[in-house]
Amino acid sequence: MYISEKEIEIRYAETDQMGVVYHANYIIWLEIGRTQLIKDLGFTYAGMEKDGYLSPVVDISIQYKAALRYGQKAFIRTWVEEHGRLRTKYGYEVVHEDGTIAAKALSEHVVVKKESFRPVSIQKIYPEWHQKYEEVKRKIFDGIRN
User: How would DSSP label each residue in 52-105?
Assistant: First the structure.
C-alpha cells in the first residue's frame, strides 16, 4: 500500500471563533491530499478533465479526533482504500506534527463523462491508472488489513 503525504500550514482564515480549524476545511484538505496522491502516482485530475472526464465525490465521511489550531502544521496522509470497476474509495488521516490523529476520513468517487455525467470504467479509459491503483491499494486478506 502506498501512502502519500502533504503538509498543510494552518491559516487563520481556516479557524473558527473557538480558534480551531473549522470542520468544512477538512474536506478541502482531503482534496489536496487526493490530488497529491494522484500526482505522486504520475497522473493528474487536470488531465482527466481535459480528456472530458470528471471524478465526483459520491460519499464522504469524517471522524474528528483532536483539534488543530492556527499556526500548527497538519499532514494529510492519503491512500487508495478500495478500487473497483466503477468506484474508488480513498482513505485519509489528518495528523498533527507529533503524529496525533486529528481526523480520519473516507471518500468514494466515480469517473463520469463530463457532458453526460454517465459513469465510465477507469480501466477502459485509463488502463495504466487503473493498474497503478490495483498495485497500490490497501490489501485485504481474509478480513485482515495489511
Answer: TEE--EEEEEEEE-S--BTT-EEEEEEEEEEE-SSEEEEEEEEEETTS-EEEEE
Domain assignment present for 74:
yes
Tell me if 76 sits within 8 A of 1, measured CB to CB.
no
Q: Position 34: which residue type?
A: R
Residue 10: pLDDT band with limits 50, 70, 90: very high
Residues with a catalytic annotation lie at: 16
pTM reported for the whole predicted model:
0.92
Q: Which of 99, 103, 112, 2 is nearest to 48 (CA)?
A: 112
- Identify the domain containing residue 29 by its residue range: 4-139
**Is 145 within the bounds of a domain?**
no
**And the C-alpha cell for 99?**
503524529
Count of CB atoms within 10 A of residue 95's CB? 21
Q: What's 100's domain CATH number? A: 3.10.129.10
